[in-house]
Write a structure and sequence with these properties.
Layout lengths: L8 H11 L3 E7 L4 E6 L12 H6 L7 E8 L5 E10 L5 E10 L1 H14 L9 H6 L1 H16 L8 H13 L8 H8 L4 H14 L6 H9 L1
Antiparallel strand pairs: 1-2, 1-5, 3-4, 4-5
Length: 220
């Protein structure tokens, strides 16, 4: 191995150690066209073997970094690879440092997570169970409102809060015992602020004798 490449050996070892067992790191000598060093080898290659495959990928060495690009290992595992072009003091290419990351394990994990969080076919919660848990109804209503408008609780304006309170009220949720304190907690506001929103809402409505209004008066 040329002296100019020797300082890169610990770099290869460090990268391979950090990503072990998922990454193979290969140091190529462009002068000989052979592999000068390899760490965590899973491609059945050894030092002294031809660098032809990697050199073909990196045929244009005008750039300092080539990739990432896809490769296929001998056992058909898919690899995500990147190559750094190593240069001497005169800026001449003298070597390649290639990192081959085995992404097959990650692809499997992604597929598992995708299947875990998706419903096929999509389904709604059983209606009987859903209706029996008013807290779930509150959470689902608020979540749907925020998702539709790409908002968070912290990003709700006064008008947003008024609209959301109106939606919750139309579902009769404020007529449920202890629902008002729970909704205030979920929306991260004081009960007094929530009561004010409700009062303003009721002032704009003609039907002030709704079950929700009566429950609000009783709580106040």
């Amino acid at each position: 191995m040329k002296e100019v490449l020797k300082p890169y050996v610990p770099v290869c070892q460090a990268i391979a150690t950090l990503l072990q067992p998922h990454a193979e790191v290969v140091l190529h000598d462009l002068a000989t066209g052979n592999i000068a060093f390899i760490a965590n080898a899973f491609s059945k290659r050894r030092p002294g073997d031809s660098s032809m495959t990697d050199v073909e990928v990196a045929i244009s060495i005008d750039s300092s970094v080539i990739g990432p690009y896809r490769k296929t290992n001998w056992d058909r595992r898919q690899l995500r690879s990147v190559t750094a072009v190593l240069r001497d003091h005169a800026n001449r290419p003298v070597g390649l440092l290639c990192i081959n990351l085995d992404i097959s394990v990650f692809e499997g994990a992604v597929e598992f997570i995708r299947n875990l969080i998706q419903f096929s076919p999509p389904s709604e919660p059983p209606e009987a169970l859903f209706k029996s848990d008013w807290k779930e109804v509150v959470s689902a209503t608020i979540d749907a409102y925020l998702r539709e408008r790409h908002l968070t609780e912290a990003g709700l304006s006064k008008d947003d809060l008024s609209e959301l309170v109106s939606i919750l009220d139309n579902q009769g949720l404020f007529s449920i015992r202890n629902a008002t304190p729970y909704i205030a907690e979920v929306l991260r506001m004081s009960r007094a602020t929530l009561y004010k929103h409700l009062k303003d809402l009721r002032d704009k409505k003609s039907g002030r004798n709704s079950p929700g209004a009566r429950a609000l008066q009783e709580e106040i």
